[in-house]
UniProtKB/TrEMBL annotation:
Protein origin, superkingdom: Bacteria
Transmembrane segments: none
Protein name, entry field: 3-oxoacid CoA-transferase subunit A
Organism per entry: Rhodopseudomonas rhenobacensis
EC number, UniProt record: 2.8.3.5
Length: 245
């Protein structure tokens, strides 16, 4: 089975339909599947439900799907860096299901493990608990959270082989391994594609059994979410120490 595709558009061909749920790896702008999310935008599909820690920042990543009004609902834990996200939500144009970050991670992990639901203390007595089943264990209250399992998962990895085995680089691992397990079809974009067998099995983060399609995209774009600098006031401080020159 050939899992390698020539580009992001080809890798998604035949998978995209209106109204599907997409699991999107990444945290902020770190480890996001930028080429694949842009290809989703170009496809024109709409009424999407997207599960992601956040929706990128204005003009980058999933935010580009917000610009084209292709996302109907986001299931996320943080949206503070995206003005467009906030505008659409406050205007009633975008549905939002908030989840505490640890709960979101566990919902994704549970979905990938075939666990339909679980109980957690996180959110008890808050808005998060509204409408959810509550149960008591050993004198403590817990709320039930549903596992998440999508139609497609898009992930970004540093290295992959032709069998679909993936290696993530440092903090870009974040939500990607969990997302890769939690969908009917996982499509991975990788910076480096190597022959099967070249990656040390002990270094593999996502086994190829979870990955159905893969595309090589080259070096990742190194976006910075917030660049904070201050003018250098001490002439004794050398350039390159994190201060504006």
């Amino acid at each position: 089975m050939n899992k390698v595709y020539p580009d992001a558009h080809a890798a998604l061909d035949g998978l995209l339909k209106d109204g599907i749920m997409i699991m999107s790896g990444g945290f902020g702008l770190c480890g996001i599947a930028e080429w694949l999310s842009d290809a989703i935008r170009d496809s024109g599909v709409k009424n999407l439900t997207v599960v992601s820690n956040n929706a990128g920042v204005d003009g980058v990543g999933l935010s580009r799907l917000l610009e084209t009004r292709q996302i109907k609902k986001m299931i996320s834990s943080y949206v503070g860096e995206n003005k467009l996200f906030a505008q659409q939500f406050l205007a009633g144009e975008l549905e939002l299901e908030f989840a505490p970050q640890g709960t979101l991670a566990e919902r994704i992990r549970a979905g990938g493990a075939g666990i339909p639901a679980f109980y957690t203390k996180t959110g008890v007595g808050t808005l998060i608990a509204e409408g959810k089943e509550e149960k008591e264990f050993d004198g403590e209250k817990y709320i039930m959270e549903r596992g998440l399992f999508g139609d497609i998962a898009i992930v970004h990895a540093w290295k992959g082989d032709t069998a679909g085995n993936l290696v993530y680089r440092k903090t870009a691992r974040n939500f990607n391994p969990m997302m890769a397990t939690a969908a009917k079809v996982t499509v991975a974009e990788v910076e480096q594609l190597v022959p099967e067998g070249e990656i040390d099995p002990d270094h593999i983060h996502t086994p190829g059994i979870f990955v159905q399609r893969i595309v090589e995209v080259g070096s990742a774009k190194k976006h910075i979410e917030q660049r904070t600098t201050r003018k250098r006031t001490d002439p004794a401080v050398p350039a390159g120490c994190g201060e504006e020159v």
